[in-house]
Amino acid sequence: MQRVEKSWLERADEETPLSQSDFIEEVKGDEKIFVASYFQLMWWRFLKHKMALISAVVVILFYLVAIFAEFVAPYIPDNSFVQFKLAPPTQIHIVDSTGKWQRPFIYKTIRERDPETLRITYMEDTDTIYPIRFFVKGPEYKFLNRWSSSAHLFGLDVPREDMGFFLLGADRLGRDLFSRVCYGARISLTIGLVAVVISLVVGVVLGGISGYYGGTIDNVIQRLIEFIRSIPEIPLIMALAAALPADLPVIQLYFGITVVLAFVGWTGLARVVRGRFLSMREEDFVMAARFAGSSEMRIILRHMMPSFLSHIIASLTLSIPGIILSETGLSFLGLGLRAPAISWGVLLQEAQNIRSVALAPWVLLPALAVIITVLAFNFLGDGIRDAADPYAK
After folding, report:
1. Sheet holding 101-113, edge to edge
2. Is it the case that residue 161 has pLDDT exceeding 60?
3. CATH 1.10.3720.10: which residues of the chain?
4. Which of 80, 172, 192, 390 fits a 20 to 30 Å CA distance from 202?
């Protein structure tokens, strides 16, 4: 009541005081904040970070594309259109050659060869129009290797020998680059999550043991962390990746690269967890739980971990872009994933020489997916980091 009366008196002194109904709503909002939990306050603060919200939407869309790659991609990634090797991105039109408005469509592409340079060029035949349709029937696939289907999000309702629709162009074998980017997202995005989970488990366990018990075990773990961090990160990752056998199956190579990236990335999180545990193990609530007979595992998981869980989430969110970039760089250099695996780094191997980039600059477009993903994760991590301290101004 004292707070309500004080606020009402303050409103009375203003030039334009609130109405009684508006004031009651404001008081209810204040009471809602007073009784809200920490994670509710964190969520409300996160909603005020516009760039983080936009980035969260972008990240969710990318992961949805990765999950439903077979449905989103108009073609199977290994489908080759021999007559459209290194075809440029297909232009989408809404106005035809006569000036009439149409539903989104493309013109038929004609392949020609320059008689002097012998270079293949692609021209549009404005007499033939192919409408772009949604939920069309296309090449058959097995969704998640379980359910057979031939439905695709968009495409052309024409035979494949008549026309190819290349939203991002085609590679040197005539394969649709957009479809391969969609399939590549499945590996490039999940490898970050898997490596982060491994880093989380190892970092929290070793960092928690080091900070909670201290003594000799703390010295051993810290010396191990210092030894790993003393080695330059990029050469260490390259050496560990190069040590993997080249003839490994795709799945085994995928998990091998994931373990390599997680092995290098857990040390930073372990240091953070150790520092927090050192500062909290003598706190009153920890001592009270210990005197109440709680087990050490319950004290760590039930009382200590939730107090800085938001900081761990923010740290992990910010570490995912680094893992994605590391995998992309390793695959680009030929030390990571290799064909027939499809990742964004594998796709960028097409752009390893200047001649390919000069003749077909669209082979660099997979890098755009990497850039957007890294920026989105960075903005999302910044938003979570700011929301982790909801009491800051």
Report:
1. 93-95, 101-113, 120-143, 147-156
2. no
3. 182-387
4. 390
